[in-house]
Amino acid sequence: MQLSAQTHYQAELDAGRFGIQHCTACNHHVFTPRELCPHCGAAGLKWVRPAGTGTVYSYTTISRKAEAGGDYNVALIDLDEGVRMMSRVEGIAPEQGQIGMRVKAQVIQHNGKGLVVFQPAQKA
Fold first, then answer.
1. Residue 3 has pLDDT above 90, yes or no
2. Number of domains the chain contains
3. Most exposed: 90, 109, 118, 122, by fewest CB within 10 Å?
4. CA 5 – CA 64 distance, rounded (Å)
């Protein structure tokens, strides 16, 4: 039995690996995990390892009481491969994120599950 695309994606994250899909028919990258290419409808998307680098497209800070864990951020990240994903930027205060900030992905474990988060990219 073959795993669904979403199940495969989460299993890879749980093992510490971040993958996105690539359509060999139209040469587009695909995220979120799917069974068919949303660009051309082809089946058989191939799993690839993205560079993990990207740019913050949108960013907001969510306010919570300290006893609920405090403030955190939510960001839309445009990966260099051309797909957009929702995540958070760690390693900075929640209000310090900026649209246009360069970031790098990493897989962390949260409540026993793999999760992609981003860190500010090192400046050259």
1. no
2. 2
3. 122
4. 33
Amino acid at position 61, single letter: T
Triad 59, 87, 110: Cα angle to 5°: 140
Give residue-wise pLDDT tens across range 33-89: 999 999 999 998 999 999 999 999 999 999 999 999 899 999 999 999 999 999 999
Q: Are residues 28 and 81 in the same domain?
A: no
Edge-first strand order for the sheet with 84-87 is 84-87, 72-79, 53-62, 102-110, 113-120
Query: By residue range, what is the domain housing residue 116?
Result: 51-124
Question: pTM of this prediction?
Answer: 0.89
In angstroms, the Cα distances linking 119 to 15, 102, 108 are: 20, 9, 12
